[in-house]
Amino acid sequence: MEKINVGVIGATGMVGQNYIRLLDNHPWFNVTYVAASPKSAGKSYAEAVMGKWQMVTDPPEKVRNLIVGDANDVSQAIGKCSLVFSALEMEKEKIKELEASYAKAGIPVFSNASANRHVDNVPMLIPEINANHIEVIPHQKKINGWDKGFLVVKPNCSLQSYMAPVYALIKSGYEVKRMIITTMQAVSGAGYPGVPSLDMIDNIVPFISGEEEKSEIEPQKIMGKIVNGKIVNDTSIKISAHCNRVPAIDGHTACVSLEFGAKKPSLEEIKKIWKEFRAEPQELNLPFAPKQPILYREEPNRPQPRKDRDSDKGMAVTVGRLRECKVFDIRFVCLSHNTVRGAAGGGILNAELLKAKGYL
Questions:
Q1: Pairing relationship of beta strands 252-260 and 330-336 according to DSSP bridges
Q2: Of 52, 196, 255, 296, which has the fewest Cβ atoms less than 10 A away?
Q3: What's 158-337's CATH class?
Q4: Is the pLDDT of residue 1 over 80?
Q5: Which of 81, 133, 157, 334 does the annotation list as catalytic?
């Protein structure tokens, strides 16, 4: 199979670095273009990330000598790549405008930014849940007058840990009415240099700007339906979220209390549903898809970030401590790797889905 040439814009930041790391030797994609701020433009990639490279392996050899382009200049990407992964870090409206400019220029955009998440014809994908939302793309292209380009986004990183376990229950016929979610989010979710060390060491910060709003609203779009070329949110599930920053490096944890409708599954049935859950990424055998999307641990003290975040390439969700809830019906703890499943790995999986479905 001939590989597709891809670019990473915002390539020098934490998410961009993860894209570079995870795309090394990818069976379908080949990184041929990197871009960042004007400050980094014109340097080799190795020079641009010197002193701020945060990955556990060195920058891949084939990317080290790529000359960094100016992410603001879309023309620099034309002819160098067939799609871009967007890890841009700038003002929201600027990102929205810039990503649309890449799409207008005929370059599909797979974005990690929040700027386009609530545009009603832009799919916000967790492929195991709402792969069918890609069906809105032809309408998106028509409305905008785009030919080959389009926009796809992924949701907030903290959602990845609990949305698949909840969706698996809904898919099995159980109505979910209300959820209370308390997240414990790793410091890498704030990027680099991120949260000051004096704020995090020996501490927990019970506020992450915008996170609770994203956690309560974004699931409604993910669970929504396409109506007349637009994604209409499902507002039937009520969610209350508490979001905290904790001193773990990687791995977002969520404690979930969940209330069902009239029909309630047993705890053993829930475990069986989670164990057997498979979806389109698994059926298509996508390279970054976890073989078993939801892993249940019976140990009373799991999941734990350090022990469970890397399960199946860092793309699986690990769940544990399922038990009855004294207020709602059930409660459990879940965890996912925020910079892999919740960021770059999730973006790569989205692109794999679109390729397998013939959109690339």
A1: antiparallel
A2: 196
A3: alpha beta
A4: no
A5: 157
